[in-house]
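Prompt: For my understanding, could you write out one protein's sequence and C-alpha cells?
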Amino acid sequence: MSQFSKKYYFFLVLFLGMLSAFGPFVTDMYLPTLPSMAEVFHTTPSLVQMGLATSMLGLAVGQIFFGPLSDKYGRKAVLVTAMVLFSVSTVASIYSPDIEFFNFCRFLQGLGGSGGIVLSRSVATDCYSGRELAKMLAIIGAVNGIAPVTAPVIGGLVAGAIGWQGIFWVLFGIGAVILAMCIIFRESHKKELRYKGSVASLLKGFPEIFKLRYFVVYVLLYAFTCGVLFSYISSASFIIQNHFGFSELMFAVIFGVNALGIGIGSGLSLKFRRMPDAALFGACGIALSTLLQAAVYVFLPGFWPYEVLTFLMLVSIGFILTSATTMAMDEGRQMIGTASAIFGASGFLFGGIVSPLVGIGNIMTTTLILLGLCGFSALAFAYVSHRRAENA
C-alpha cells in the first residue's frame, strides 16, 4: 500500500471521488428538466432522452481511449486533456440551436468526462491493492453517493432560477475546479512502469485482457448492474413527475434521497469478508426488489411502495458497484489502464442501450421489464463469481 501524508490522503479521496462522480453529474444534473426540455426544443421525450444515451456513449467510448493512453503517457497528462475537452463541449452545449446539436455536444461532454471516471479507478489501483483497494473504492463510492444526491437538487434549483443553461455552467465550473486540483495531484503511474510500445500497439492489450475469464465475468456483472441503474435513472423523472405528479424540485429531493442508497450499499459491502459474497448479496437484493416492484405495480399501485422498493434496489446496487470494481481491477492489474477502460465502458455502454428503451410504450411497464432482464442477468454472473471464490 502506498504511504501518503494524512492531508494528501484526504485530498486523494476527494479528488478521486470527484472524478468518479463525473458520470452521475453528467447524466443526473439535468434530469429534472427532461420533461420541459422536450418543449424547449419542440421535440419528443425520446429525442430528449437521447441526450442521456449520447452522453453515456461518450462516457463509454472515451474510456476505451483514455484508459490505455494513461498507461503510456501517465494519468495526469491524459486527465488534463480530458478535462479541457469536457469544458469546451459543455460551453458549446449551452448555445445549442437544436436538439441534434445538443445531443452531439452531450456525446463530446461524455467523452471528456470519461477521462475522470476511468482514471479514478486507475489511480486507486496504482496506489492500493486487495482489501485496501476495496476500502478506497468503498470510500470513493460513498463520496460518489453525494453526486447523485446533490446533482438533481442543484439542477432543479438552478433550472428554476435561470433555466437549463445554468445547469451546464455549473458543470463547466466543476470541470474548472478539477483542472485546478490537477496541479496538486501527484502522478501515480511511474515512468518506469509505463507502456513502452507504440500507441497503435496499445490496442493489443484489449484481446489479451479478454482472455482473463473471470475478468469478463466481473465486467458483465458490473454492466448488467449498470443496466438496472440507468433504467432507473432514465425513467425516474418521467415516472415521479408525470406518473406520480410531483414537481421538478420534489423529484430532485426524492431522487437525491434514493441516491443515498448507493452510498449506503457501497459502505456496507466492506462488512463482508469476501467481495464475491457482497456481490451475490447485492444481486439477490436487486432481483428480489424488481420482482416485488412488478407485483406492486399490478396489485398495489402507489408512490410509497414504489419508493421503498426503489431505495432497496439502489442499496443493493451499491454492494455490486464496489465489489465488482474491486474484483475486476485486481484481476486485470497487469494492464490496469486497459482493464479500467473496458470495465467502465461496459457500464455506460449498457446504460446507453437501456436509456432510450425505457421511453418505448408504457414507461412503467418497459422499465420493469428492463429492470428484470438486467437484474437477473447480474444475479447469474454474481453466482459464477461466488462459486469461483468457494472453489478457490
In short: The two ends are 24 Å apart (CA to CA).
